[in-house]
Amino acid sequence: MPWHARLQLDYTAEHNARTVARYEHNGPLRILQSLYPEGDAICHNVLVHPPGGLVGGDTLDITTTVGPGAHGLVTTPGATRFYRSTGPLALQRSHLTLAEGARLEWLPLEALCYSACHAENHLTLNLAPGAECIAWDVTALGLPHAGQPFEQGRFTQHLEVPDLWLERGVIDAADDRLLSSPLGLAGHRCMASMFFAAGTPLDRTRRDAALDAARAVMDAHPQVKATAGATSPNDRMVIVRVLAPQVEPAMKLLKAVRVAWREALWGLAGEAPRIWVM
């Protein structure tokens, strides 16, 4: 039987400037204990899906709201796994909404697409004026370390900030031109996008600071320097994209960019979620 799990996560800033997380769930989705390694203003949470993966017919619906002045950080304890499907779609759908002056760091670990999966990963972000978000999306095709290439299946990725930015693409294991051509993934099996998005246009100084910080990080990561880039497609976003043969070098780069952006754009240290170092 397919599982349809739902999670509603809400961050609010209390009168003492403490960000508090509250949630409701239906099905196998949970939020672990709130942690405050940076003080009361920033609430760290780990999103857990106990089954560990999705098969055909499963749906995960995750809705996150961040209230005025609150700052939430969400990550996961491990990869999201899209397993083999006999036909039905496995769907993960995340809808993020930030109120005025809110901040969110949306930092789930990678999505692993097993051979013969039929899956979609769908992210929508809505930002009120003054809200800002650092987020990433990392996808790995097959399990190269285990000798299990992505030989069958289909994966759809949808990343959207309505009326501002949309990336939607389909990766079909039969599309050798996309997977192997220099005009496509060029044989790489990990692709990642990271973005800083704002509800209010960024002034030129902040946009340049974000681009310079990301490019400096890329220069320090020779494994992916040639296949990574930073752009600003509009005055409210800065985007980093990277291709890598596997997850580890791509994730290492994104974590370093997060540290650089936190410092350059928010004046914050790069405190890593505790689950990353366990």
TrEMBL record:
Give the matching InterPro entries.
UreD (IPR002669)
Statement: the UniProt record of this protein carries the keyword Chaperone: yes
Classification via Pfam families: UreD (PF01774)
Query: What's the main place this protein lives?
Result: cytoplasm
Asked whether the UniProt record includes Calcium among its keywords, one would answer no
Keywords assigned by UniProt?
Answer: Chaperone, Cytoplasm, Nickel insertion
Q: How does it assemble?
A: UreD, UreF and UreG form a complex that acts as a GTP-hydrolysis-dependent molecular chaperone, activating the urease apoprotein by helping to assemble the nickel containing metallocenter of UreC. The UreE protein probably delivers the nickel.
* Function according to Swiss-Prot or TrEMBL: Required for maturation of urease via the functional incorporation of the urease nickel metallocenter.
Tell me what this protein is called: Urease accessory protein UreD
Name the species this protein comes from: Acidovorax benzenivorans
- Lineage from the top down? Bacteria, Pseudomonadati, Pseudomonadota, Betaproteobacteria, Burkholderiales
